[in-house]
Amino acid sequence: MCGRFDIQLPAEMLGKIYQADISNIEDFMPRFNVAPTQFAPVLFSDGEREFDFARFGMHPEWFKFRSRDLINLRKETLIEKPFFQSQLERNRCILPATGFYEWKQNGVRKTPFRFRPTSDELFSLACIWEVDTYHGKKTPSFAIITGPPNGVMTPIHDRMPAILKDDDVSRWLDPDTSIQDLLKMMSPYPDSGMECYRVSPRLNNPQNDDPSLVEPA
């Protein structure tokens, strides 16, 4: 799964990298520990690319666990449920992340690790979105798609976020891209493009959000 991530680039840099309108996220400040239910800048496209804030975690009306959100969706089952297939066909978006976190289970103890691109730039995480009602207001929400792990992730966890290659970003946002091509894009990310290291257990508290969280423990 993928339940925490960091976005250390300011809005201006995100706009330049993705060639997108940032007028809705101009006040975004770098984040080091984004957790479920919090808001993050997400890239949408409706002919023109634009960033907007979206809530991390979808909550469809039919979802039986009313006190929980769907933060991750398995690639393998996306086309098995009509609702998710419809979202995959119509409501795709991208979450930019300069890193993400996962915990390794050691008996009763869990140790957090940070995964980041070796290029020191960012990952483009494949997501789908919908509009939910949050505090009485309609707001976009998103979930990160996960798939099988690559060699870097395997020692830590058996799932990892679906990370798009740079050449696939435009095709992911293109409404005419076929389901078959979308599924191919979500293959495990190359080992050579990713590295990981252990980080502080302070990450466990979502209220902690400072640069020290991305430093090696």
Write up what this structure looks like:
With 217 residues, the chain is mostly beta strands. The protein has a single domain (4-100, 121-193), classed as SOS response associated peptidase-like (hypothetical protein yedk fold, Alpha-Beta Complex), CATH 3.90.1680.10. 13% of the residues lie in helices and 37% in strands. The chain has four helices and 13 strands. Strands 3, 4, 5, 6, 9, 10, 11 and 12 form an eight-stranded mixed β-sheet that branches. It has a five-stranded antiparallel β-sheet with strand order 2-1-7-8-13, with no helix packed on it. The longest helix is centred in the middle third of the chain and has 9 residues, at 82-90.
Give a summary of the structure in a few sentences.
The protein has 217 residues and is mostly beta strands. It has four helices and 13 strands.
Q: Which features characterize this protein?
A:
13 strands; 217 residues; hypothetical protein yedk fold; globular; mainly beta; 5-stranded antiparallel sheet; 8-stranded mixed sheet; 13% helix
Strand content: 35-45%
Task: Please state the structural category.
Answer: mainly beta
Taken in chain order, the helices and strands follow as: EHEEEEHEEEEEEEHHE
DSSP E strands, number = 13
- The number of helical segments is 4
What is the helix content? Answer: 10-25%
